[in-house]
Amino acid sequence: MARRAAAALKSLLKLRIPAGGASAAPPTGPALGQAGVNIMEFCKDFNARSGHLVKDTPVPVVVKVFEDRTFEFTTGPPPTSFFLKRAAGIDKGASKPGHEVAGQVSLKQVYEIAKIKHTDPRQSLEGLCRSIIGSARSMGIEVIRK
After folding, report:
1. For labelling, which of 74, 82, 88, 128 has a CA lying 20 to 30 Å from the CA of 136?
2. pLDDT value at position 146?
């Protein structure tokens, strides 16, 4: 919903909603309802905006709710851990990272994830790849040269 006037910010909500899966059901509905957001309007807008993504991909959302009950929301790219788990073919990371290996990803897969996550022009793709490799190690996912 577009803001009409310069209304004061009432609250800021940070949610993680599955792509195309916003509904009035918990946890999304109650969080939005308590902030005074029109839940059905938000769900319709969010589902339309995230419709291009694979269903059930977690999407970080920041919702700004204003005093006049209007809202704005921005979506971000899915978390790195989601992409790493999907690339490695696992449901969760290792319970003891560094001592056990939960899965493997190739450098090519790391590069593909970095291309998807690259939204800040000030950050180099190489630096982002290093960050993703660090995330993989902390999850117990081995990065192999292939």
Report:
1. 74
2. 74
Same domain, yes or no, for 46 and 62?
yes
Query: Own/partner pairs for 22-31, CB < 8 Å, 24+ apart?
Result: 22/46, 22/47, 22/50
Q: What is the mean pLDDT of residues 85-106?
A: 95
Residue 138 is inside which H or E element, if any?
Answer: helix 125-138
Q: What's the pLDDT score for residue 5?
A: 54
Peptide bond into 27 cis (omega under 30): yes
At position 114, the amino acid (one-letter code) is A
Q: Which of 3, 21, 29 is nearest to 13 (CA)?
A: 29
Q: Are 116 and 131 in contact (CB under 8 A)?
A: no
For residue 115, tell me if it sits in a domain. Answer: yes
Assign 3-state DSSP to the chain and report helix, strand, coil percentages, each to 5. 35, 25, 40
pLDDT in tens, 13-72: 999 999 999 999 998 999 999 999 999 999 999 999 998 989 889 999 999 999 988 999
- Read off the pLDDT of residues 36-48 as tens digits, 9 standing for 90 and up: 999 999 999 999 9
Global pTM? 0.82
